[in-house]
Amino acid sequence: MEKERKKVQKPKPETESNNLYDISCLFFQKGIMGSFLLISIFSLLLRVSVSLHSYSGAGSPPKFGDFEAQRHWMEITTNLPIKDWYFNTTNNDLSYWGLDYPPLTAYQSYFHGLILKYFDPNSVSLFTSRGYETHFGKLLMRWTVLSSDLLIFFPAVLYFIFIYHGGNPSGGDKSDVAWHIAVILINPCLILIDHGHFQFNCISLGLTLGAVAAVLSRKNLLACVLFCLSLNHKQMSAYYAPAFFSHLFGSCLRRKNPPLEVLKLGLAVLGTFAIVWWPYLHSRDAFFGVLSRLAPFERGIYEDYVANFWCSTSILIKWKRLFTTDSLRFVSLVATILTFLPSMIQQILAPSSKGFLYGLLNSSFAFYLFSFQVHEKSILLPLLPATLLAMELPGVHSMLLMLCALLSMFPLLCRDKLVVPYMALYASSILLYLAPSGRRHIKKHLSRPMITFSVVMILCSLIFHIIYLTIRPPEKYPYLFEAMIMNFCFPHLLGFTVYTNAKQWMLSREFTSGDKEKKLN
Predict the structure, then answer these.
(1) What contacts 94, CB < 8 A, 6 or more positions away?
(2) Which InterPro entries match (predicted)?
(3) Percentages helix, strand, coil for the chain, rounded to the nearest 5?
(4) DSSP track, 366-403
(5) Do the beta carbons of residue 355 and residue 504 sit within 8 Å?
(6) pTM of the complete model
(7) What pLDDT digit, counting tens, does each position of 42-52 carry?
(8) Cα–chain-centroid distance for residue 235?
């Protein structure tokens, strides 16, 4: 009898869908999805708890605060035609919280305004709803932020964790992954600003985080669309633009047909912007009218007491008195570009996933420290990539950065009467880093000088809190304590930026010492 020849089946090529399926199975087997759900529920409860407290401008007529600004935008967008949203008319007084964010914020306000109009029409009625602060109205407003967080930021965190830890063949240690999820979701600064002070940073940051995850999974077209949406929700997302541009451009240069790859990404960007801006593209006046609302240069180079270069050095150099707004705009632009340029060059020459995350951190810090018109709340932008890098950065550095960021916003949150939730989240932030996984990351790079520095930093921070809450400043210097806090935080943030830039450039050594990456398909 003739022996039958055995047909040897070739293994199926490993496709992206197979990889994603294997990763998702691994996540379920290791219980990481369960951890994500539990941490999400806990972080949601924290958000709800903070939302029970006061908010920006509560009971403070005539203009109130950010809570009233967000409500007013819902009032305007649900009662006026889209062509009038950004322009001064008899029904839209731009001096009273006129829209000054890109169109996607206006569309979001319109959508939320429809919900408020359905459940409580008086809360968005034209003119008569100004300063509307009924209990039911406040509940509805708080619900809009909570739902935005759940629908955009939380899924983006899951997407990032799925891609970031899924790249590890073993899926990563379960406790480390859970700790990383907690660090991102239980960001005390984001919770206090969105659910206390009252803003919708969770939307723009969630879209940015989705774009970051898309870059890490090499879905560059999706990344472009998501990041453009983030830019069109809040123009401050431009803090991340140098990192996205340099990494994607550097990646395109390493493909088989660089011009075609750049063209595809360019078309994705133009297409997304065209769709979002479509109602204002019918005339030049309409387009530039909206654009002029997004750059409030008349407010000056800094606002309030922010821990950046211009505000910190203004004690010695009176920038606003010595220089015109135009000259300060130019100088701040040059300083910002020079600060983020090294990070961009590194990613163009040697693009990598880790380098991209460091690039996001370094470019956002460049804008925070040196750009024009920065607010205390802008610290949220560098904090996002800092939490994404929590597994890479020394734990003690991450913890001190978070505590420093909290301290820099303390005067603002005091004015909002959010001291109790602030202190609770300040303590929870320390406890998170003292958890077993957090302690392991802290011990990795701990030295005697670092221990001394950390103890001094935390003690000084506590002293500043006590002074601010218990002692009245001199009448001649009413903002003395704000200035002290600002000048305490600025050197730390600057030193951290220098350190992370050095860390990013050290990645180039790994790139050049190992085998160079082959052209991407």
Answers:
(1) 87, 88, 293
(2) Glyco_trans_ALG6/ALG8 (IPR004856)
(3) 75, 0, 25
(4) HHHHHSSSB-GGGGHHHHHHHHHTTTTS-HHHHHHHHH
(5) yes
(6) 0.91
(7) 999 999 999 99
(8) 12
